[in-house]
Design a protein that fits this description.
Layout (H helix, E strand, L loop, with lengths): L3 E7 L18 H7 L3 E7 L2 E2 L1 H10 L20 H6 L3 E6 L18 E4 L28 H6 L9 H15 L7 E7 L32 E2 L9 H31 L4 E6 L5 E2 L4 E3 L7 H4 E7 L10 E8 L1 H11 L13 H4 L10 E5 L4 E5 L2 E5 L8 E4 L24 E3 L8 E6 L17 E4 L14 H16 L4 H6 L3
């Protein structure tokens, strides 16, 4: 049995671009080497999206997209690290993820025994002025960008946030982990998330003929970007190449971490996962815009390497359906801890120990206020809301949402006199429930257009090109989604807005 665990979460890690999952587009030799000694899960899916909701799945074990958008740990729940502390497990967070230190994500790190934040990635407000010496790189022409203020201070490859995270995690394993009987090292690495900015030789690795003055490191968040003229096909290839450069870049530094892990004792389990993928032209979709969660975004990699003295140590492929809340349940199971609040995950240990071939019949996925997805064995159902996308409620005692750097005054509407106290499933703690109607200001995810419900047979149609929503296949999945929402005790207004 594992005594220690290292979790490596690489943000926006595209499953379909990893060699371990059959891709030859970009080089990922260290992830592929790790996969050769791990269990490779083939039907692992994101639950709540995007970044902070996904971390809520992982660290709190409960889906939140049916009840609230982006937000922090609530009063009725506690992160994984709290029961692990009570079980005598030392927990360490090493991260460069800026959203963990913003309003709406600010308390996920506080229960860790210790945490280390490497500054300067994406929206991190680290510097107020660009490097005046120009020893580092020049700005990219976005003077209001936090990243442009930080970028020039990265003198060489090792100064980028991703390498600093991997080096610090490796240092902790070599110098501090050895003093603890049981530990969880949680590495929340923001790469290969945008900006897709890398030093040479990575920057030119996959698009050496790009001749423009500036590389395209910020992808648009758009459906139909090429068709609408937002970018050209050539610009799209450049963006995709720069994602590949960032992927190969962080893969190299993951190799440095892997060396430190391999030097440690062999009772450590290692989990490599992500929060979600990233559209890079599939269906002509770019970024993470308001649209269904197609396979490139929601179907994610999961690799788990077990200690060598276990029957779970032999590399294998696992085709069971799994989702991110299952990682929370697995970590509790490994350390013999329990959660006091209601969770939605199932431990993966029966799969790893070959004691079961499945742990769940369905998984739920979605973004607050948008389509609700049901994933079954090689099948997906996308339920779009009815016209108006109401009624809708938000449940929270910590009123916050994702900050948007370019719009600092964009805030979540405050509760009004229609708000009332309700309860979350499994909790007796009163929670503010704010109803929204069509004319109300709402969390911004809910505003985009919808193009109807969809059903896909992923076994015969992995590209999700044939909508089977109107036949018996789709009707069966629609019934499964209704039953799943009932089982998790989703709010009544979710059933109404989804037309049930």
């Amino acid at each position: 049995m594992a005594q220690n665990v290292v979790v490596v979460l690489l943000d926006s890690l595209n499953r379909h671009m990893l060699g371990a999952y059959g891709s030859t587009e970009f080089a990922t030799p260290n992830l592929d080497r790790f996969a050769d000694s791990a269990t490779r899960f083939t039907q692992h899916y994101s639950g709540s999206l995007p970044c902070m909701p996904a971390r809520h799945d992982l660290l709190c074990g409960a889906l939140d997209f049916l009840w609230k958008p982006w937000g922090s740990v609530e009063l009725w729940e506690e992160p994984l690290t709290a029961p692990l502390r009570r079980a005598g497990v030392v927990t360490k967070l090493v991260t460069d993820h800026p959203h963990l230190f913003e309003v709406g994500g600010e308390n996920y790190h506080t229960e860790f025994t210790a945490w280390d934040y490497q500054r300067g990635h994406e929206s991190d407000p680290w510097r107020t002025h660009a490097d005046p010496s120009w020893i580092g790189a020049p700005m990219f022409g976005r003077p209001s960008s936090h990243y442009d203020h930080s970028r020039g201070w990265f003198r060489d490859e090792a100064d980028f946030p991703g390498p600093r995270v991997m080096r610090e995690a490796a240092r902790w394993l070599r110098e501090e982990a050895i003093h603890h009987d049981r530990f969880l090292l949680f590495i929340d690495e923001f790469d290969p998330h945008e900006p897709f900015d890398t030093p040479e030789p990575y920057a030119s690795m996959y698009d050496p003929d790009w001749s423009e003055a500036q590389r395209l490191i910020w992808p648009p968040y758009t459906v139909g970007a090429v068709a609408k003229g937002v970018i050209t096909e050539r610009e799209g290839r450049q963006i995709r190449a720069n994602y590949g450069a960032k992927l190969t870049f962080i893969d190299h530094w993951f190799g440095e971490l892997l060396t430190a892990i391999d030097e440690s004792n062999d009772d450590t389990a290692v989990i490599v996962c992500t929060d979600h993928g990233h559209f890079l032209g599939e269906h002509d979709i770019w970024g993470k815009p308001a649209c269904p969660i197609y396979e490139p975004l929601g179907h994610t990699p999961l690799l788990i390497r077990w200690p060598t003295d276990s029957n779970a140590a032999s590399p294998m492929t696992c085709d069971a359906l799994t989702t991110n809340v299952d990682l929370h349940a697995t970590l509790l199971d490994i350390f013999g801890a329990t959660s006091d609040h209601r969770t939605h995950g199932h431990s993966l240990l029966p799969l790893l120990h070959r004691e079961a071939v499945s742990i769940r019949e369905w998984a739920l996925s979605g973004v607050y206020g948008r389509e609700v997805h049901l994933i079954a064995d090689h099948a997906k159902y996308v339920r779009a809301p009815v016209a108006g996308n109401v009624p809708m409620s938000m449940f929270s005692n910590r009123w916050s949402t994702m900050p948007v750097g370019g719009f600092p005054d964009l805030k979540l509407p405050m509760p009004d006199d229609r708000a009332y106290l309700d309860h979350m499933p499994g909790s007796s703690i009163p929670v503010i429930r704010q109803p929204f109607e069509a004319s109300d200001p709402r969390p911004f995810w809910s505003y985009a257009k919808f193009d109807g419900s969809k059903a896909f047979d992923l076994g015969s149609d992995p590209g999700e090109l044939r909508n089977l929503c109107d036949d018996r296949f789709g009707a069966h999945l629609a019934d499964m989604l209704h039953a799943a929402l009932t089982e998790v005790e989703a709010p009544a207004d979710q059933f109404v807005r989804l037309g049930y």
